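Why show two proteins at once? Because comparison is the fastest way to build intuition. When a single record is shown, students tend to memorize it. When two are placed side by side, the eye starts asking what differs. So, the first record is below.
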Amino acid sequence: MSDVKKVVLAYSGGLDTSVIIPWLKENYGCEVIACCVNLGQPEDYAAVEKKAIASGASKAYIVDAQEEFVKDYIWPTVKAGAVYEGKYLLGTSFARPLIAKILVDVAQQEGADAIAHGATGKGNDQVRFELAIKALAPNTKIIAPWREWEFKGREDCMEYAAKHNIPVVATKSHPYSMDQNVWHLSHEGGHLEDPANAPKDDVLLVCKSQMEAPDAVTEVTIDFKEGVPVAVNGKQASPLALLQMLNDIGAKNGIGIVDIVENRLVGMKSRGVYENPGGAIIMYAHRELEYLCLDRATYHYKEQIANKYAELVYDGMWFAPLRDALQAFVDTTQQTVTGRVTLHLYKGNIMSAGATSPYSLYSQEFVTFEEDDVYNQADAEGFINLFGLPLKINALMKEKSHQ
């Protein structure tokens, strides 16, 4: 262990990373530099920095990467329509590669020997952090204390923190493991570990529950350009500001609350509750616009791509060549996904209320049930005969074989 002189730690100020600083110093005898990346989690960053130093870090970096997060990680995933197992909007999954990228930058700047993280040996985040580091800095040593130390769980960590006079947010009465950024807030642990338990009232911290949401419909319009939002209710703003506006609107209406038992990459199932108010609205609206603007073959194939893209991101493969290749396909499909979508929000529900696009492939002239001059219904007979020819030949073969 003596070969490690300086470590950059992915630091949040929470329970796990709070105890890692003194643990690294005790067990590796190294200098620890804390790096906290602001992706939209509501923290007192001055206090986080002060706490890192007080816990034993020689230096603390506070990096605001919110705009980069939305523009370079969230928007590409929105364009892909990537949702893991039909529910999870990947809020933690695509945050980890950006954090890892910044850790690598700091480590190179500081001449550090290693990078450490607070992900457990049971979770997905250890894979996401480490695959990103391997892709960006293949010769950097990685330290994962949860895979080394003697602590068996968070209660042991709380006891260690108490012995070292490190204040922590998590307590035995509020034991949730949470991850928050501008895209989502996740909750795991505590009574949520039993899928038979309904979430308690104290779980939701961002969204109103459906019962508390207003008894009136909220209308929202989103303008998209080439697959990404550019305006909300006619107001243009930066990617971060647009997402924050939709977070506020969605949270008030109980939008984006997801309860899922998901398949972790490491082989076990885990139960989590996610709050994705703005994300749920954006993903819904984006899909509505694609219905209008993409042809059948492209839309159906893109659905397959979306599932693979989501799996790659979930598995920590953000910097993989395949994810880059799929992104190139996705970006091509988004060249005509431009227009306006109107939605109605009501007590946790999102309802379509119209969509328009200069690239719309919908033609009322062709699809109308009324009289038209562009579609000869008699043409359908020949189409059906040819399309159904394999079925007819197969049936004739069966008849002949039974004679």
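Second record. Ask yourself what differs from the first in the token line.
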Amino acid sequence: MKKYLSDKNFMAGFIFFFVSLFYLANAFLIETKGLVSVEADFMPKIYGSLLLFCSSILLINSFLKLRVKNEEHTKSATDWKRIFAVLGLIFIYVLLMQYLGFILISIPFLFCLSLILTPDYVKKTYWIYAVFSVVLPIIAYFIFSHYLSLTMPSGIFF
């Protein structure tokens, strides 16, 4: 039992399994009016279902790996510098979203996030990060605003 509690993937799958159950149960409690086909409960139900599916796969996969794995396991050092950098970046992203808008704040956010989360042993390809950081927010903005009729934070420029 100790090897399951010390495995990060198993614990993450276990925790997020119950978080997704709670999230999904509350998504079904969202009141809808029945006026349009896609209402306020649609995306939370999708996110909850995806989180439940992914956490179940992670839980099962890590359980099967730990069952056949020997007792030898290596402890990897936690990279606290990257963790706090990502948390700070998310804080700045959320703080500036209403002022600069979704597209303008998402571009530097995704670029910096790509730089931070790329492991040191992988060569950083800045042009791929730049293209990804520009294209993804624009596509997401148009999908959410035009096809799903959801308003995205527009900020001072849009």
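One difference worth noting in the second protein: The mean pLDDT is 82.
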